[in-house]
Prior knowledge:
Low-confidence stretches: 109-113
Structural class: mainly alpha
Radius of gyration: 18 Å
Oligomer: single chain
Strand content: 5-15%
Largest sheet: 2 strands, parallel
Amino acid sequence: VKKWKADLDCKVDLKNGEKLPVLLLANKCDLIDRAITSSEIEDLFSSGEYLGWCEVSARQNVMVEDAVRYLVDTMIKNSEIPEEPATTEVQEKEEEDIVKLEDEKPPEQEKTRRKCCMG
């Protein structure tokens, strides 16, 4: 994980020069016999620049959607720039680059969602 994170940090930067936001996901939390403990995950998290960490299960779909939503919400929040007067040409270009994401879930599904533990 450390090698992958270092490689990512060397190769990818945001437009503002900051590092790409990374959320550490520990998959297979549904297994009884785990290859890595929560304290080992916490050590990995503490040793890198991560937004947070979360135990997930792709097989049972535990916390996957919440983790991705947290990462995307954080990226969107970090990309918001204070409004400044801009020329019409710049405004038109910025509007072309905007992608609006909307939650399409029916309201009854929202009641069963769990929260993800982020750092």
